[in-house]
Amino acid sequence: MPSFSVTRSVPYTAEQVFAIARDVARYKEFLPLVRRSLVRHAKTHQDGTETFEGDLTVAYEKLRIEEVMTSRVTVDPKALTVTALSDEGPVRRLESEWRILATGENRCDITFTVDYELRSRMLQMLFSGMFDLAVRKVMSAFEDRARQLYGPTIP
């Protein structure tokens, strides 16, 4: 299964960055190619974790592709992770994870990792060359969202 990962150090607190990662319902506002994002069946568990189903409608107009990706999402505020698993639609398996690590008073590292396998070998070959770029674009959009919400840096 192809795996792509990117890590960036940003001038925001881990809590600020985690707030963006966990707010799946707002992904449509800033992630490239995401037309719609919806959270369903949200539950908070005794250990503080949250689980829900997240639907992302992803559209790539040049290839006339539009798919709804439904994932089982786990938000872990203690570990500062957001993990999504999907095995529906065009993917045989897709696992993505946001991992936030505090590295200073107003600084943290964000790691975004995606492992995936598509059902169609043709699509797998087509997307394999573009997936690394797509993961980097998602990370850039995430950084842009932090700047939009919290300003260019923390004083």
Structural description of this entry:
This protein is an alpha+beta fold and 155 residues long. It has 2 helices and 7 strands. A 7-stranded antiparallel sheet has the order 1-7-6-5-4-3-2, with helices on one face. β3 and β4 form a beta hairpin. α1 packs across α2. It is globular. The mean pLDDT is 87.
Characteristics:
155 residues; alpha+beta; 7 strands
In brief, what are we looking at here?
This protein is of the alpha+beta class. It has helices at 14-22, 121-150, and strands at 3-10, 34-44, 50-60, 65-76, 81-86, 91-104, 107-118. It has a seven-stranded antiparallel β-sheet, with helices on one face.
SSE inventory with pairings:
Blueprint: E1 3-10, H1 14-22, E2 34-44, E3 50-60, E4 65-76, E5 81-86, E6 91-104, E7 107-118, H2 121-150
Antiparallel strand pairs: 1-7, 2-3, 3-4, 4-5, 5-6, 6-7
Major beta sheet summary: 7 strands, antiparallel
Radius of gyration: 16 Å
Low-confidence stretches: none
Spatial strand sequence of the major β-sheet:
1-7-6-5-4-3-2
Question: Helix coverage percent of residues?
Answer: 25-40%
Strand content: over 45%
Distance between the termini: 42 Å
Number of strands: 7
Give the CA-based shape.
Answer: globular
Mean pLDDT over the residues: 87
Helix count equals 2
